[in-house]
TrEMBL record:
Pathway: Nucleotide-sugar biosynthesis; UDP-alpha-D-glucuronate biosynthesis; UDP-alpha-D-glucuronate from UDP-alpha-D-glucose: step 1/1. It comes from Sphingobacterium puteale. It comes from the Bacteria. Residues 331-446 form the UDP-glucose/GDP-mannose dehydrogenase C-terminal domain. It catalyses: UDP-alpha-D-glucose + 2 NAD(+) + H2O = UDP-alpha-D-glucuronate + 2 NADH + 3 H(+). This is UDP-glucose 6-dehydrogenase. Catalyzes the conversion of UDP-glucose into UDP-glucuronate, one of the precursors of teichuronic acid. The active site is at C275. Belongs to the UDP-glucose/GDP-mannose dehydrogenase family.
Length: 461
């Protein structure tokens, strides 16, 4: 008989931990869920009465938090207490790419995971099931287990891998209606305890159980395949621009082959987000560490193609603007890595901006959900120029019309639906002529824009 879970603790109140645990709390009113974080400001924001101030923007999230918060969903900085009281502990802390030492720029930095493991070991006075939720390199569970068993108080720890497949912007629907739930582990009872939680709302046939390593590797592989599809269609987009083919037509034609499938074939200025690049770099690092050079090189190309696409887009802007953007105002519509999120990690916009700023462009950014503070932090993190210079060259405004006023060109970096509803006639009148639009998301209607008098470029046409 598996143990019935009554209390869950989740360490890490970020883009994964926050939405995932909110949905578990909503779907399982009989389970108390406490999300803890070292970042007190973040926890305060999750507890804010004004739901507009939640630290993560996701359609449908605030309604769930409103329903479950302080009923069976709690946000706290008291990590020890939440660990002590929980039967099951999810680890959902960040695992960024290492920026120092061995594996710098490739391997995942597991220091936050290790800190969690040591804290759990130190606090736990009874048996716990520990669940890896963050994406981790294969065989991390072994390291976790070793720390827990060697530093703990003689209690039993069972480790499960339960990677999260939600995509940002659609997190809540992905969680409520997942394609599958994956649970890897060695102990039947521990696996069954987690299966029972998901079975409150997910069909049993969609809950897969595997060994630990298959589960860990499946997560990296899923993200690698998804990113590869984007790089593959982006590679074809470059060829389309040279030959007169249209990448949307090509995507539609190949996508109707059921072996290929139609989803995830949208050419773009390049993929971003916290997962794709990090997970592929991880896969490359692991493959190299096992001496699998060809495997490593194969996946590395997905990243190369993505970098190429971002540069190619920026280069095209420069070339079209008569080979110089120095002192020219370029309006950026969108900064988030995709629509319907305020997350900007690895967003293509950051790198396109960096490239144009190297050419002394002046950039004005409008994004419906991203704060000015975040945008400047993203630019400062590049270490390409001083933060004073970033603030001198980049302005962040509150309306799209302010962004485009007097601009030489508009670059669309995020596919926010609202951009389609703007008064493009009015925008054009206030721009420098010829008025250029560079659509990195193939969002707008070419005919409509050309009829208004824009010079319109879209990826892959
Ligand atoms: C991804 C995976 O989809 C998800 O399963 C995993 O759990 C985390 O990583 P996420 O990064 O949140 O999710 O968003 P996703 O929708 O996958 O988009 C990633 C990037 O690829 C975005 O920048 C998006 O704009 C881009 N993309 C996606 C394209 O350019 N074209 C596409 O067809 C699809
Ligand atoms: C292929 C295309 O499928 C078809 O649409 C096109 O018109 C011609 O090229 P074909 O080469 O006849 O058809 O066979 P296919 O079933 O695609 O297999 C090609 C090779 O891939 C075979 O050697 C097959 O064994 C191998 N393969 C296919 C795998 O190794 N694994 C797979 O999952 C699928
Ligand atoms: P993800 O997209 O994986 O959810 P985030 O960066 O959004 O990543 O969230 C991870 C959260 O984990 C952050 O809020 C961070 O403060 C928190 N965190 C990292 N290490 C610890 C730790 N040792 N204890 C508690 N919280 C932690």
């Amino acid at each position: 008989m598996s143990k019935t879970i009554k209390k869950i603790c989740c360490i890490g109140a970020g883009y994964v931990g926050g939405p995932t645990m909110s949905v578990i709390a909503k779907q399982c009113p009989h389970i108390d869920v406490t999300i803890v974080d070292v970042n007190a400001a973040r926890i305060n924001a999750w507890n804010d009465k004004n739901l507009e101030n939640l630290p993560v923007y996701e359609p449908g999230l605030s309604e769930i938090v409103e329903e479950a918060r302080n009923r069976n969903l709690f946000f706290s900085t008291d990590i020890d207490r939440a660990i002590d009281e929980a039967d099951m502990i999810f680890i959902s802390v960040n695992t960024p790419t290492k920026n120092y030492g061995k594996g710098k720029g490739l391997a995942a930095d597991l220091k936050y995971i290790e800190l969690c493991a040591r804290q759990i070991a130190a606090v736990a006075k009874n048996n716990k099931i520990v669940v890896e939720k963050s994406t981790l390199p294969v065989r991390t569970a072994a390291a976790l287990k070793s720390i827990l068993d060697n530093t703990g108080n003689g209690v039993d720890f069972h480790i499960l891998s339960n990677p999260e497949f939600l995509a940002e912007g659609t997190a809540i629907t992905d969680l409520i209606n997942p394609d599958r739930v994956l649970i890897g582990g060695e102990n039947e009872n521990a696996i069954a305890a987690l299966v029972d939680i998901y079975a409150n709302w997910v069909e049993r046939s969609k809950i897969l159980t595997t060994n630990l390593w298959s589960s860990e590797l499946s997560k990296l592989t899923a993200n690698a395949f998804l990113a590869q599809r984007v790089s593959s269609i982006n590679a074809i987009s470059a060829l389309c621009e040279k030959t007169g083919a249209n990448v949307d037509e090509v995507a539609k034609a190949i996508g109707m082959d059921t072996r290929i499938g139609s989803k995830f074939l949208k050419a773009s200025v390049g993929f971003g987000g916290s997962c794709f690049q990090k997970d592929i770099l991880n896969l490359v690092y692991i493959a190299r560490s096992y001496g699998l050079t060809e495997v490593a090189d194969y996946w590395d190309q997905v990243i190369h193609m993505n970098d190429y696409q971002k540069h190619r887009f920026a280069d095209h802007i420069i070339q079209t603007l008569y080979n110089t953007v120095s002192g020219k105002k370029i309006a950026f519509l969108g900064w988030a890595f995709k629509k319907d999120t305020n997350d900007t990690r690895e967003s293509a916009a950051i790198y396109v901006a960096d490239y144009l700023l190297n050419e002394q462009a002046e950039i004005t950014v409008y994004d419906p959900k991203v704060s000015a503070e975040r945008i400047y932090a993203d630019l400062d993190d590049l270490n390409s120029r001083s933060s004073d210079e970033n603030r001198r060259l980049v302005k962040i405004v509150n309306t799209p019309y302010d962004a485009c006023d007097d601009a030489h060109a508009i670059a669309i970096l995020t596919e926010w639906d609202v951009f389609k509803t703007y008064d493009w006639q009015k925008i054009k009148e206030k721009m420098k002529k010829p008025a250029f639009v560079f659509d990195g998301r193939k969002l707008l209607n070419r005919k409509e824009l050309e009829d208004i008098g824009f010079k319109y470029y879209a990826i892959g046409e």
